[in-house]
């Protein structure tokens, strides 16, 4: 285990050390001490290494992550794992706004709750939230899967494209062009895999699926009121 | 019996034939007009300014003998590797999707020949433009289509787009005709749908967040490359000040004459400021922060000639950016395609339905047959020629004003032909010492 201490080392040096790792490194296990809400921590990683952040982080932790597995042993500020390409990010606590925003791939797990706009504009990422999520989740979500074990806020999936949304609890309201859809066997199988990878104690049959009605895919004046 | 004289038919200055035609079109369709390009209305512009040239108190430089440099460095404030350009004219962001791959290649080739940069657009970075652009600015847009760290790291600069002059406060829509399999793949969207681009960034709101977003992008790119912030001309003093305070290396201000691939005509013509009105407040903001020249100002929107370049620089720009003019140089709206423009219900010079993807010149299209009409090498040569002329014209004016570097042009070299232009550019009305609004 290699250790980086933000009480002694600058953010630049911590990130540079982690970013310098590549697929051939033998130093695959790292811990970062004293994050104390630092912004832009462990961003732009590009190697199959495991990083444990021993505390809470500020904005954009694990931003644009590729391949790395990053555990935050605390809560994460806005935009955690934004634009993630691959790898895994696990937040032991809660996540603030925009968790997983625009993510292209990989798995984001939030063990606590996630705030508003979770999965906004997601483009292929898988997100599993063990708790509840706030309003406007999966706004303009394009691809990927958002799984919520708890409840959702207002306007879930507003203007959604082809992302799949799975919710176990209540949905306060659905956004424009988002509808409940049939849970077919392939969805149950997909969900079972996501729940297992996220360490979630739930069964697929407890969830309902939501997705795009595809009524807003082509701009038409008669839909103007829905936009 | 003589005929009684009659009042001639008289058109309203308010309800002109064009206005009435638009009312009838709106009544028939129920939808607003969407088009490409920038504001077409007449607004105060660089044409309303004149250079004074040298005289008893100014010493000119010899046109063909004495050096007048044109180089510019963008982004040295924080970036370890700033962008070094041979000329103060860059190519503005235009997306693959809005433009064909051949057009993007031509822009890259032409800009590289001229020693300047080109810029991606919504939809990500293509191999055509990266491969053919020696200096490539990678736009960071609200949609984040195609955004990935690999392309971020192989960019020469990042341009965070907050807005653009044609539609400050607006997003975009690329209609399904242009969402080809390749465009759809790059944007992670189904093929053929009308694709919306958001008007706000998904993971930051306001200048305090932007400061942290800039930190993140710098951390991901190792503080190597400059970060520009582009805004549509709306509140140029405060927008420039806030962008600089948030940590931008370069601020890009785009006036309402700046083009877009597609948006509502009402948006283009009625939202935002003319380019001329935006420059001096932006410069003032940098001066007030003590950041003039440390943070560079790039101005775009309606730049057509070396005179426009020189005037923008004299008012305080470090460089300018061109989009529409570059497309025209490639071949957009060329009268050679007049018969086809007529078939589309328009005429060469007025064609602006770029969103429909039926561009006869093969530039604003994803139709493979139309796109094949543009020879990227020949088009690049035209762009290079045009950029050379812009540079020569700018040097001609700068020498006449006694400047050994175009950056030394200054407001004192200018006067205005109209009261409006004098007020906006903060230079005297021609033949007077009167600057409207200036209190001595």
Automatic annotation (TrEMBL), chain A:
Residues 44-176 form the Glutamate synthase alpha subunit C-terminal domain. It comes from the Bacteria. Coiled coil: none annotated. GO terms for molecular function: oxidoreductase activity. This is Protein GlxC. It comes from Pseudoroseicyclus tamaricis. The lineage of its organism: Bacteria, Pseudomonadati, Pseudomonadota, Alphaproteobacteria, Rhodobacterales.
UniProtKB/TrEMBL annotation, chain B:
Belongs to the glutamate synthase family. GO terms for molecular function: glutamate synthase activity. PANTHER family: ARCHAEAL-TYPE GLUTAMATE SYNTHASE [NADPH]. Keywords: Oxidoreductase. Residues 80-331, 355-403 form the Glutamate synthase domain. This is FMN-binding glutamate synthase family protein. InterPro entries: Aldolase_TIM (IPR013785), GltB (IPR024188), GltB_archl_type (IPR043578), Glu_synthdom (IPR002932). One of its GO terms (biological process) is glutamate biosynthetic process. It comes from Pseudoroseicyclus tamaricis. The keyword Magnesium does not apply. Pfam families: Glu_synthase. It comes from the Bacteria.
